[in-house]
């Protein structure tokens, strides 16, 4: 029996994880605020601005995860034909994806996110506005979400719904929240999770 050595992706997992968590924080600190600025030129309702950005984040992760699964399937089918080791096929596939993330068609994911947002019943926007104005935010979120799928274990965002019980471990309250309210009125930014454990808190608004 041959013992399989860990691939490069697994050996660099900790450093890549730290870098991706930092990138996720930078998107929250900078790209998110840039997107707010663009949206406020057409939308005066800040709640709607926040909802749009939150849904953009959720849809970006969804699109990137779907793209990753399809990409991984194609790579696995191709590499399995001539795989001999010494690494396992799974590690060989992971190494290939990490080394060739530039092959990820991020624009296709951006287009998919915008299509989904255009038909989302929870958000409304002026007819003259196009979500392409926040495409930079969406692109960065898709890229980081795709890369997070190459981690072992992968990182993902928390599932959030309006009216859920506010969790101090999962979210920060926005400054305009009612700090005595127990329920989430809407979300501003998703929490980042690893195996159901909160790695980075999100942001939510609580109201009575």
List the helices and strands and how they pair.
Elements lengths: L7 H4 L1 H28 L5 H34 L9 H11 L6 H13 L16 H14 L7 E2 L13 E3 L10 E6 L2 E3 L2 E4 L1 E5 L2
Parallel strand pairs: 2-6
Antiparallel strand pairs: 1-4, 3-6, 4-5
Plain-language structure description:
The chain is mostly helical. The chain has 2 domains: 8-154, no CATH class; 158-207, no CATH class. The protein has helices at residues 8-11, 13-40, 46-79, 89-99, 106-118, 135-148, and strands spanning 156-157, 171-173, 184-189, 192-194, 197-200, 202-206. The strands form 2 sheets. Strands 1-4-5 form a 3-stranded antiparallel beta sheet, with no helix packed on it. Belongs to the MIEAP family. Residues 16-206 form the Mitochondria-eating protein C-terminal domain.
Give a count of the beta strands, DSSP E runs of length 2 or more: 6
> Which class do the helix and strand fractions yield?
mainly alpha
Summarize the biggest pleated sheet: 3 strands, antiparallel
Strand content: 5-15%
Helicity, in percent? 40-55%
User: Residue-averaged pLDDT, rounded?
Assistant: 93
State the strand order across the main sheet.
1-4-5
In sequence order, what are the helices and strands, one letter per element?
HHHHHHEEEEEE
Shape verdict:
globular
- The oligomeric state of the chains shown is single chain
Number of helix segments?
6
**Number of separate domains:** 2
Ends apart, CA distance between termini: 63 Å
Rg estimate, integer Å: 19 Å
Unreliable stretches, pLDDT < 50, 5 or more residues? none
């Amino acid at each position: 029996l041959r013992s399989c050595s860990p691939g490069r992706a697994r050996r660099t997992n900790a450093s890549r994880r730290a870098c991706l968590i930092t990138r996720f924080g930078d998107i929250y600190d900078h790209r998110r605020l840039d997107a707010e600025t663009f949206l406020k030129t057409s939308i005066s309702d800040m709640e709607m601005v926040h909802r749009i950005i939150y849904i953009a984040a959720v849809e970006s992760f969804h699109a990137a995860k779907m793209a990753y699964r399809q990409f991984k399937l194609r790579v696995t089918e191709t590499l399995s034909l001539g795989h001999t080791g010494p690494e396992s096929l799974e590690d060989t596939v992971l190494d290939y994806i990490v080394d060739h993330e530039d092959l990820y068609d991020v624009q296709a994911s951006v287009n998919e996110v915008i299509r989904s947002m255009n038909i989302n019943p929870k958000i409304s926007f002026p007819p003259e506005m196009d979500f392409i104005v926040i495409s930079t935010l969406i692109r960065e979120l898709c890229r980081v979400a795709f890369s997070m799928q190459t981690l072992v274990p992968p990182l993902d965002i928390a599932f959030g719904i309006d009216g859920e019980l506010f969790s101090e471990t999962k979210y920060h309250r926005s400054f305009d929240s009612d700090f005595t309210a127990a329920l989430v009125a809407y979300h501003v930014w998703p929490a980042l999770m690893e195996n159901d454990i909160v790695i980075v808190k999100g942001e939510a608004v609580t109201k009575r």
